[in-house]
Design a protein that fits this description.
Number of strands: 4
Structural class: mainly alpha
Shape: elongated
Strand content: 5-15%
Length: about 350
């Protein structure tokens, strides 16, 4: 038996190698067919690349020609991979026309994908980022489906929202938390609420620690182009870890804190199987839950009875607002936001709006 080792750097079809081998040893296809006990047509189809070499055929070729079976299987496998790669490349070229729907530049800034100007490479990076074989499969993946329930209007990109959701998921997976405990979260609400008067960086640092101990990963991520996302809530690790994702869209501190407690409301009140995405476009199927989360956030931030008393006094001066906020141990901007929402004060009241501060990304 021949013991030569055959190594090829070229992805040639096994049939082509078989034809060359037969020519080299002076054996006809008919003779090989007789030695293998196979029809001549079958041998001819292998040589022409119309028929693949099976494991059985590879073993028989080893017996007849002395070339190890793994060589035949390897050549066949490598060739099929090359063909598949070529088909994949065609598919990627076709999908490159959809790149405009994805906020690729945002992902580059955050280090999720590599910077490149080549469309094919961008498609390949996005497939890896989403863990899909084709970009067309993204809407079919359960984790991303909430993004495609948002009405595709007013420059909203469903693909961009799905991209933001996946970026949050990847960041959340790296955050270590204890197992989720609803009671601990409820008991921690006063402490969390009291921290909002600190600087935002210091406040979030402390809040993240508290939430981690409650089984919640808090992810802070800018909203991507064409998403208009304020935040989101969902679950990971077989519903053992809750995720709250927050942007600074709108930048006003009252919007941030209301959105934050809105997300906590979803965690405490609603099923773990749902993904709640906050971008101003309410999913009609989840409208009831959204209303409940809004009510929870409003009542958690401002005691309704105290608020009613404050409004009845009809004193909305700067000092009055600051004193009321101090009494409730919340930011003055929360009071301003509520008064504007209830149309008690107007956006043009510059004397009060000075209390409505903004947050910015460092």
């Amino acid at each position: 038996m021949m013991t030569n080792t055959y190594i090829s750097d070229l992805a040639i079809h096994a049939g082509e190698f078989l034809e060359e081998t037969l020519e080299e040893i002076g054996m006809t296809q008919a003779e090989l067919a007789n030695r293998l006990g196979r029809p001549l047509q079958a041998i001819n189809e292998i040589i022409k690349g119309k028929k693949s070499i099976t494991s059985t055929t590879a073993l028989e070729l080893e017996d007849v020609l002395g070339i190890p079976s793994h060589i035949w299987i390897g050549l066949e496998s490598e060739y099929q991979i090359v063909i598949a790669r070529q088909e994949e490349l065609k598919q990627m070229e076709e999908e490159s026309k959809f790149l405009k729907n994805f906020p690729y530049a945002d992902l580059v800034k955050l280090g999720f994908v590599k910077a490149t100007t080549k469309a094919i490479e961008k498609v390949d990076e996005l497939k890896r980022f989403f863990s899909v074989a084709k970009l067309a499969q993204i809407p079919q993946v359960k984790a991303y489906q909430p993004a495609f329930r948002v009405a595709n209007t007013d420059n909203i990109s469903n693909e961009a929202i799905a991209t933001w959701i996946q970026a949050v998921r990847l960041k959340a997976k790296d955050i270590q938390t204890d197992k989720f405990t609803k009671k601990k979260l409820k008991d921690s609400l006063p402490q969390i609420k009291s921290l909002m008067n600190l600087g935002i960086k210091e406040a979030l640092k402390e809040i993240q620690k508290i939430l981690n101990s409650c089984g919640i990963a808090l992810v802070l991520l800018p909203h991507f182009k064409n998403t208009k996302v304020h935040g989101a809530t969902f679950w990971l690790d077989n519903e053992k870890k809750a995720v709250i994702a927050m942007t600074l869209r709108g930048s006003y501190s009252d919007i941030f804190w209301f959105s934050f407690f809105h997300e906590i409301g979803h965690i405490l009140l609603h099923p773990k199987r749902e993904v709640f995405l906050e971008n101003g476009c309410v999913d009609e199927k989840l409208k009831k839950q959204e209303d409940e989360a809004n009510k929870f956030a409003g009542e958690t931030l401002i005691n309704q009875k105290e608020y009613n008393k404050f409004v009845q006094k009809n004193d909305f001066s700067k000092d009055s607002v600051v004193d009321f906020a101090h009494k409730l141990e919340i930011k003055s901007s929360i009071i301003i936001g509520r008064l504007m929402h209830d149309k008690i004060i107007h956006f043009s009241d510059s004397n009060l709006l000075i209390l409505r501060d903004k947050y910015k990304w460092e």
